[in-house]
Specification:
The chain is globular. The longest helix has 20 residues. The N and C termini lie far apart (49 Å). The protein is an alpha/beta fold.
């Protein structure tokens, strides 16, 4: 016999109810006879140090799911969204993601900000949960686990574009100050190769605790060794104090160039504009693109309309990877014609979208990573200006 909870759920569904977000229900009579919702799980940091990125991820997921449902859903079925707070804490994340799999029985999970978070939750999703997982963040590459698809840029996509530009517009003497976890270590390994291949030199490469906020020794080393370019992978909370101390030491005034490949419009606000003037980044999207890209302008305007405030649509916060991941998955499910994990994964392996923030995108068959356009931008008075664009879709060189 049906218990009270299942009875209520059944009654709601027969009336065409669909969850489009936490606590949000919209009646859709046209789906009254549908098979039931397709369930999408979002695992992201709604609280904790990286909540500014996680909240953006959740907002983008709500926006894209709303668009898909308004267009008729997928396979004539609506999308039901379940959002779990990973709380910038791996142990909390594992428990909450397990609920997505076991309680909510989602058909796919998207999310995760840091690589350590991805590594913490992926086994729960893919191995134990037998569910597809899309990781949307720009990251260090090398995630080649079956059933995991990555829709953010890799070091090859960012550094092959950015490093030569930095050497022409900064200099050949690099410092690599870094947070001590997987993303900086593997990224720096690639960065060093590109620097040396192009005739540059790494003066020093150092790693610090994630919560370190005092960098006087590092700043002194940068200044006394006449470093031209600081290629930074220190993350919040340390990055703000580090950039401030570097500014106060006169690094920028003597012609030094800051660079940080995760820096987007959200992180650009951590310091006053004058402290990071000239900082260079390379990502798959910048808001400045909306001036000459109608698709990016439309997506940006829709996000700003639905989610006004300080949680900005930005590439380094995995917003573009979340958008791209959901749309590529939509294409794959439609091709597969069903939600079977192997069938959808097979279709996702070669899925393409003609439009998205920053341009079109396509999965590289056999790599489970995404080709996309890349842009180099420089911070000017608190905003970004585009100074370089890839000629086409850039290969992730992964797996």
């Amino acid at each position: 016999m049906m218990n009270r909870r299942r009875l209520l759920q059944s009654a709601a569904w027969s009336g065409g109810a669909i969850a489009t977000g936490i606590g949000s229900w919209v009646i859709q009579p046209k789906w009254a006879s549908a098979a039931g919702p397709i369930k999408v799980g979002i695992a992201t940091d709604l609280t904790g140090p990286t909540a500014f990125s996680g909240k953006t991820n959740a907002n983008v997921a709500k926006m894209v799911v709303k668009d898909i449902n308004n267009a008729g859903g997928i396979l004539s079925r609506p999308i039901q969204l379940s959002i779990a707070d990973t709380a910038s804490n791996e142990s909390v994340a594992v428990a909450n993601v397990r609920k997505l799999i076991q309680r909510d029985k989602v058909d796919i999970v998207l999310g995760g900000i840091t690589s350590s978070m991805r590594n913490a939750i992926k086994d729960v999703i893919v191995a134990r949960g037998k569910t597809l997982y899309i990781y949307p963040q720009q990251y260090e590459g090398r995630e080649c686990t079956p059933y995991i698809f990555c829709t953010g840029p890799t070091p090859a996509q960012q550094c092959d574009e950015l490093i030569p530009w930095l050497m022409k517009n900064g200099g050949k003497r690099f410092a690599l100050p870094s947070a001590n976890y997987i993303w900086p270590h593997i990224t720096n390994e690639y960065v060093r190769k590109v620097i040396e291949k192009n005739g540059g030199e790494v003066i020093f490469e150092e790693y610090y605790p994630l919560d370190q906020v005092e960098y006087s020794a590092t700043v002194n080393k940068i200044m006394t060794n006449n470093v031209d370019v600081v290629f930074n992978t220190v993350i919040p909370p340390g990055v703000g104090p580090f950039f401030k101390q570097l500014y106060e030491a006169g690094f920028g005034k003597r012609g030094g160039r800051l660079s940080c490949i995760y820096y987007d419009e959200n992180t650009l606000k951590i310091n006053p504009a004058y402290e990071i003037e000239g900082l260079a980044s390379c990502l798959d999207y910048f808001r400045a693109l909306t001036k000459d890209d109608p698709v990016s302008a439309r997506i940006q305007a829709e996000y700003d309309k639905q989610f006004p405030g300080n949680v900005l649509f930005a590439a380094g916060s995995a917003a573009t990877g979340m958008y791209r991941g959901l749309k590529l998955w939509e294409v794959a499910v439609k091709e597969a014609g069903k939600l079977d994990r192997d069938a959808v994964a097979g279709a996702l392996d070669h899925a393409k979208i003609a439009e998205g923030p920053g341009g079109p995108a396509e999965m590289v068959p056999g790599q489970r990573h995404c080709k996309m356009k890349m842009y180099t931008a420089v911070a000017k008075e608190g905003n970004y200006q585009i100074v370089g664009r890839s000629e086409g879709l850039v290969d992730p060189k992964a797996c």
